[in-house]
Amino acid sequence: MKKKRNIYLIGFMGVGKTTVSKYLRELTGWEEVDTDKVIVRKKNMGIPEIFEKYGENYFRNLESHILEDYAKKGQRIVSCGGGIILRENNRKLMKKSGTVILLSATPQTIYENVKDGKDRPLLNGNMNPDYIGKMMQERQPYYEKAKDIEIVTDEKAPKDVAFEIIERLQISMAGKEEEA
Question: What residues bind ATP, as annotated (predicted)?
Answer without folding.
Answer: 14-19, 120
